[in-house]
Design brief:
alpha/beta, Udp-n-acetylmuramoylalanyl-d-glutamate--2,6- Diaminopimelate Ligase, Chain: A, domain 1, UDP N-Acetylglucosamine Acyltransferase, domain 1, ten-stranded parallel sheet, flat
């Protein structure tokens, strides 16, 4: 399908700068632009590509002022990054969904599969499991006994939803994602470690997306919770009994230890580690590889370092870190001088 600059601007509430009749039928990064493609510029670091791109239309922020002539038609919008996301979502929704249960799928007689669902070859839906209308269960995905998957969900190949777990509506689980594996619970005994049965579940609320090979463990009792709108990147680990607040995002390789409660709208960079039984308030932001060793219940802080501290303190401290070898040499030199002075004083006595 083709859309003109005028049509796109009307949909986004934007302003056309250039040819309103310019048309596009695909998307491209601004540095890889081609005729008929739509690109966007949200970061001024990429501005130089704007003057060279072959894309027909480029979305730019409303306050952007080009330094020289732009060949492409521009559409000024309030937020170019948000607008390109809206258009990409619109494009994705236009792609026809698969439907039907493949003959090689294994669906238990007592399972319930809603209307307009797709269940791919070698997928498994166990006894008493429920899959809501419009959901897509890709090949080799597993929905175990009594588990519930809501409407319009996507479970990509090799996803595992363990028994009794609950997945809300419009949830996306990427390949290799495991929901409801046992929490890491073992009691030390003289003969080794006694496994503590994990009899709880995982509850995932609506509009959650969880990346490839990420794991959310079932609770010892009750439930581990992933609240509405949470986004977890690939290889994230959420341990048993955790409660991840709504609209919180975690980058790759974040690890959250057991029984930790995290507030709403938090952001965690890659490889952040969070200790068990911590309480993290709303709108906490944490830089990559930070180690959160305690609670920050009041929220509204930005943390860096390990152990994590306020970013301003960390920034000042990092200047000192770089100079520690020099400080160490100066300290040893001063130490030698003090010893020499002491020796002189003792000789005079």
């Amino acid at each position: 399908m083709e859309f003109s600059a005028a049509q796109i601007a009307q949909y986004l509430g934007g302003t056309v700068v250039g040819n309103p009749d310019a048309t596009v039928n695909s998307f491209a990064k601004i540095e890889e632009g081609k005729p008929g493609a739509l690109s966007f510029l949200a970061n001024n670091h990429y501005e130089h590509y704007l003057y060279e791109t072959e894309s027909s239309i480029v979305l730019v922020n409303r306050d952007f002022k080009p330094e020289r002539e732009v060949k492409a038609t521009m559409i000024q919008v309030d937020n170019a990054y948000e607008c390109i996301a809206r258009l990409l979502n619109l494009y994705a929704q236009a792609i026809p969904k698969r439907e039907g249960i493949h003959p090689l799928a294994c669906v238990a007689e007592t399972a319930e599969v809603g209307e307009n669902c797709y269940v791919g070859p070698f997928a498994y839906i166990g006894d008493g499991a429920k899959v809501g209308a419009g959901s897509q269960i890709y090949p080799h995905a597993v929905v175990e006994e009594r588990a519930k998957v809501g409407e319009d969900c996507i479970l990509y190949p090799n996803v595992s939803v363990y028994h009794d777990c609950v997945v809300g509506n419009r949830v996306i689980l990427h390949s290799g994602c495991v929901i409801g594996a046992d929490g890491f619970g073992f009691a030390p005994t003289p003969d080794g470690y006694q496994k503590i049965p994990q009899i709880g579940i995982v509850t995932i609320e609506d509009d959650v997306e969880i990346g490839a090979n990420a794991c959310v463990d079932r609770s010892t009792m009750n439930s581990t919770f992933i609240r509405r709108g949470v986004k977890l990147d690939n290889l994230v680990q959420v341990a048993h009994n955790c409660d991840i607040g709504s609209h919180t995002v975690m980058s790759a390789q974040v690890g959250v230890a057991g029984s930790t409660k995290i507030g709403q709208w938090c952001m965690f960079g890659g490889q952040v580690g969070i200790t068990g039984h911590a309480k993290i308030g709303d709108r906490v932001q944490t830089g990559a590889q930070a180690g959160i060793a305690g609670s920050f219940p009041n929220g509204n802080v930005t943390l860096l370092g390990s152990p994590a501290i306020d970013y301003k303190n960390f920034t000042r401290s990092s200047i000192v870190f770089k100079k520690l070898p020099d400080f160490y040499r100066e300290f040893n030199a001063l130490k030698d001088e003090v010893e020499a002075l002491r020796k002189q004083l003792s000789e005079k006595e």
